[in-house]
Amino acid sequence: MMQMVQQGNYPEPTTDKQAVSQECEDLSLEDQQLFECESNDNLLSTVTNHYEGLMDGTSSPEVICASSVLDNIAEKFEQKKLSLSHLRTGSLWLHYMDMIDSLRLLIKAEHTGNWDLHLSTVNEMLPFYASAGHNLYLKSAYTYLQQMLQLEEKHPEVHAAFKNGNHVIRRSDRFWAGLSTDLIIEQVLMRSVKATGGLTRGRGLTEAEWARWILSMPACADMNNAIQEFCGTR
User: What are phi and psi of 24, to 5 degrees?
Assistant: First the structure.
């Protein structure tokens, strides 16, 4: 200390102006944090009111979707994602959340019969196929996407049908009841083939047995539909 005094290396004293400036910055930060807390509380209260109104029927989904509260939530969410994107662990979790979002959108597109959402989601999943090393999935999905994007020009009637939600199969009139064709094949056709009384259970695999089973399926389907309509389960 004596050496610092002898050499003239004095610590600069804090002036009143600097102290006041630092205190103002601290107060400004506290006010900003307090404002953010109040804003979040108001936002949470608004969301709670919307949810309660939707549950008791006093509010409609159209009114809630038109509200700005959803945009505010999305904006805050994007700001939080941006603040975490420079961290390694945060970046990893954000990429994982993007994968889950793409999967959720694909399921939504299938169940609701949304053709445009289906194509956009398949396009979003291409980088994940490549990064995971699923080259065959990547090749097939890329070729499929190219062909479907040209569908409006080459086959406009098929494109119009797909736009109306006919690229999925519905076994009921519910909004969330759309199923992909390969899933329907597994649930209906393959199930009928492998179940008791099916083609591969207790029957000979001769051509006569195959023909008899295949030709009897339309009649069995009509009888099944009639029984379901009679019982009110269709």
Answer: -65, -40
